Amino acid sequence: YELSMALLAAGSGVVSASDDTPTYCVAKPDGVVDQNVLLDALNWVCGKVDCSLLLQGQRCYEPDTVSAHASYAFNEYYYQSGRLTGTCDFNGTAMVTTTDPSHDTCTFRRGRHQSAPTVSLGWSLPVSGTGAVLLVVMTSILF
Hints:
This protein is α+β, with helices and mostly antiparallel strands. It has helices at 35-46, 66-80, and strands at 2-9, 22-27, 94-97, 111-112, 118-128, 131-132, 135-141.
């Protein structure tokens, strides 16, 4: 007889939106998150993406708040990371939204929300008196 096992792991999105609905990663509202944790997240993400538009005199400087600056930087990281599930968290300080946070001259990048890569692992072990064979199949599919 043959012994088979299969595992399918798929990410699930935070936002319920059609595949064509633009999504954005923004800081959670003031009062919901600790401002020190938010500032730490902003400092970390600005080490990963270009935050030059947040400098004084640049088009995304205003409003000059940690939350507004974090929203822009978080969205840049989310965009750069392919908008995959899990790339908009920043220690619980961020969330995905379908509301465009762009304002005045500061335009946020937009795109559709992606699920995490689907990974399928298949194991097949034929067991008989003549020997055993182990077959491992791994695939990764991005939607």
